[in-house]
Amino acid sequence: MLLNEQINSIEIILSFSSQSPAFLSSKEQKQSNLLFGLPRYKSWLYGRSALKNLLSNLNLDMDTSRLTFPNSRFSLSHCVNLAVAAGLLTEQKSIDGVGVDLELNRSVTDMHTKFYLSRIERRSALDNDDRIRLWTIKEALFKADPDNQYTVLGHYEIEDPSLLQGKAKNNRGRSFYYSCEKLPMDKIFEIRSGGWISCAVSFSAST
């Protein structure tokens, strides 16, 4: 299933999958063999399926073994029995990274928020739904950062955490745009849980 998302006039395509891919390349099969029997094996397969569908619709090579993350055009997220791949409709030199995060409803206590939200951001986390929403934004920002090996979620500051679309920066001065929305997952994949999905794109510190 494909959906379109707009972030500050930038078009992002979302591809969802809850099944294994129809085929794997020889390199993908080698990756699959290394993960077989591990807890993340099924989610890896769903992620390959979502990515392949996305690449196919963009008329690109469907061999996902060539992709590494963080990526300037693509991102992946897994949640329970569902994966989502996000990609720019067209490659853009001004964008350094793309991020996506999907979370189904779960319990997130206020105590947990101190690990990923600033004091100002915590004021916007009025209930569990807000805490999930802000978590997905922070995860999407992190995944969109090409230098995220040097950061944690708390290093990303949302300009106005009450907004569903807005701007953010990290502690190194990199700029981001993000967008989030509530997903009626029961209507899409018959998963009886609500949830949030967030997408983000990053720009260089000088942009």
Number of helices: 6
What number of structural domains do the residues give? 1
Neighbour order of strands in the largest sheet: 5-9-8-7-6
- The coarse silhouette is globular
Task: Describe the 3D structure.
It is a single chain. This protein is an alpha+beta fold and 207 residues long. The chain has one domain. 28% of the residues lie in helices and 30% in strands. A hairpin with a 2-residue loop joins strand 3 and strand 4 (82-88). The mean pLDDT is 90.
What are the key terms here?
alpha+beta, 9 strands, 207 residues, 28% helix, four-stranded antiparallel β-sheet, 30% strand, five-stranded antiparallel β-sheet
Give the gist of this structure:
By secondary structure, this protein is of the alpha+beta class. The protein is 28% helix and 30% strand. It contains 6 helices and 9 strands, in the order ββααβββαααβββαβ.
List strands and helices in order, with pairings.
Layout: E1 2-7, E2 10-17, H1 26-35, H2 41-57, E3 74-79, E4 82-88, E5 97-104, H3 110-113, H4 119-122, H5 128-144, E6 156-158, E7 165-170, E8 175-183, H6 185-189, E9 195-203
Antiparallel strand pairs: 1-2, 2-4, 3-4, 5-9, 6-7, 7-8, 8-9
